[in-house]
Amino acid sequence: MRLKNISIILIIFSLPLFAQISSSYSRYGIGDIVYSYSARRLGIGQLGVSIADADFIGMINPAGWYKLSRTRIEFGIDYNNLFISDNNTKKFYADANFSGFTFAFPISRQYGVGAALGILPYSNVSYDVVQNFTNQNSTIGDYNVNYKGTGGLSKIFIGSSAQLPLDFYFGATLDYYFGSINYSSSVDFIDDNKLESEYIKTYQVKGLGSTLGLLSPDLTQLFKLESISDLRFGVSLNLISKLNTDSMLVSNSVIDDDTISQGFAKMKIPVRINAGLSFILNSKYLLSFDYSSQPWGDYSFNNIKPGNLDNSYKISSGFEYRPIRELGSSFWEQIIWRAGLSFEQTQYFINNENINQYSVHGGLSLPLSNENTIDFGIQYAMRGTTDSNLFKENIVKMSFGISLGELWFIRQEK
Description:
Blueprint: H1 7-12, E1 32-33, H2 39-43, E2 71-85, E3 90-108, E4 113-121, E5 123-133, E6 143-163, E7 169-189, E8 197-215, H3 220-223, E9 228-240, E10 243-253, E11 257-268, E12 272-281, E13 285-294, E14 300-301, E15 312-321, E16 336-350, E17 353-367, E18 373-384, E19 392-406
Antiparallel strand pairs: 1-5, 2-3, 2-19, 3-4, 4-6, 5-6, 6-7, 7-8, 8-9, 8-10, 9-12, 10-11, 11-14, 12-13, 13-15, 15-16, 16-17, 17-18, 18-19
């Protein structure tokens, strides 16, 4: 399979980017945060800050690119199922979307230099909520208010890694953030003689950012551990400058469409800090433990802090079984298996309640060849509560990805 024949990428980029069902809570702030785009990371809890891969492209810590052994192309598709319930009703939503594309290649294995670029989602806004109102006033009558939101933020990145003294590794990216977030509310009168109306608020966002990462050297020799190898700590920072935001409020009705207001503002997204520990047991079993934190209480739009966001954090653990490659191994003996657990206190703070999420993860990689795999990941999550007039959500997310690797830029002997 030749990577240079990449016409499939043109097909992928013709799909709508990152349009998906996320959560009814995504109407607040910039929506649900995307921790990882790949099926592999989804299978081990979505983080993996200290994991460096030779045959996968990790995005949460660019320092891990030092270990790349091949030029790699990765892309994925997600299928999302969302079950929402409150004290009175239940609803089900489902959607599929393109989850991201990355391209990476080694430059110098001796000095730990690898490079990567791509396009990935950062946040998703996707909700559809209806409120029913009964009005005794015969002039107005009963009506429904429909709240909808779509869009989110994405980023285009380019970055590299390098080896530092004492076998530390450092990585950095330059990120360009962009996106459109649309919020709409419409009034639908039960009486057909009443005129419906709709208000649409749109944010067009753009700006720069960066991700910085650091990996420790292998600490197994320091602790003299025999059955454990590749014991590493990792840390990364996701920094975003104040994003330029053009906003527009439009009123639509049967009579007329009117632009009520237009303006320019700054959007401040707080720094995300990630830290983790990982090691390999008996040369086959990878275990990882990770923590991510982002002070969403500091988020502001036009220097105004909303009251429904709070500081968030995520704790995850992951397990991966990777069999040792041997000549003559069968297809089934080369399958990579994954599992994970995670807990997240999301950024949403509604009706004096923190919205928490509990998740179970799993996945596997099927070999196409020694360097190429088809990857599957699945996450089942429970979020929120029906108390305090809130929503409870059961989420099933399935991710499908392809990771292709090949030797490029190798000088051939004549």
